[in-house]
Amino acid sequence: VYPSVSPDGTRLLWEVVNGELLPGQSQPPGVEFWVGNLDGSLRRMVQRLSGGYSLWLDAHRLLLVKRIVYSADTQLFVLDIDAPNPAPVLLGTFRFVRGIQVAPGGAHIAMLLPFQPDPNASGIYLLRTEPGAVPQKLPFFGAYQWRDDQSLYTLSYDGSTDVHTLGVYDLTTGEHRTLTDPDTLPIRVANGDWHVSPDGTR
Q1: pTM for this entry
Q2: DSSP calls for 19-80
Q3: Radius of gyration of the chain (CA)
């Protein structure tokens, strides 16, 4: 799988998938998670799971995402690759996880949990990347991307209109405010094709 560069720009992370899930198998094939320096040195396998994928949280930690086959459940783990004996620590098990986004610095992730047994529980959630953290439902619905480690840019979702409103959600205050007026700046984004600049200003 194509490698990704660590947030501090010093390491590569990649996965080796040993085959595909075939009908009749109870477990997906093993996935190996590898890290190394940018020049290819110090390559080592840091974990092996039966299925899943990984994301950088920070320069030392990975988020491991493992879907449970033949179910709607996904397990999230944190792995400290520089620990003496790296072992994944379970953050939680969630149903129908979509759209995982890691905050700069890796202290939080945002994710969409649709189709929950209680419809009122469906929505966008914030989760600290520490064991025992409790997911917090956010007071908006739509697309989202991190602006910085304390705020998210949002795009509204409203089936009655074909334009979006750009907003920002502040983790520290819980305030969600709009930044654009759809009457004067009718933003239209298709297929989630929008990106935030590294400094969060554009």
Answers
A1: 0.91
A2: S---TT-SSPPPEEEEEEETTS-S-EEEEEESS-EEEESSSSEEEEEEEPTTSSEEEEEEEE
A3: 18
**C-alpha span between 95 and 133 (Å, rounded):** 17
pLDDT in tens, 169-199: 999 999 999 999 999 999 999 999 999 998 9
pLDDT band at 18 (very low <50, low <70, confident <90, very high): confident
Q: How many beta carbons lie within 10 A of that of residue 111, not counting itself?
A: 20
> Do the beta carbons of residue 79 and residue 47 sit within 8 Å?
yes
CA distance 121 to 103: 22
pLDDT tens per residue, range 152-163: 999 999 888 999
- Residue 169's nearest CA partner among 200, 146, 185 is 146
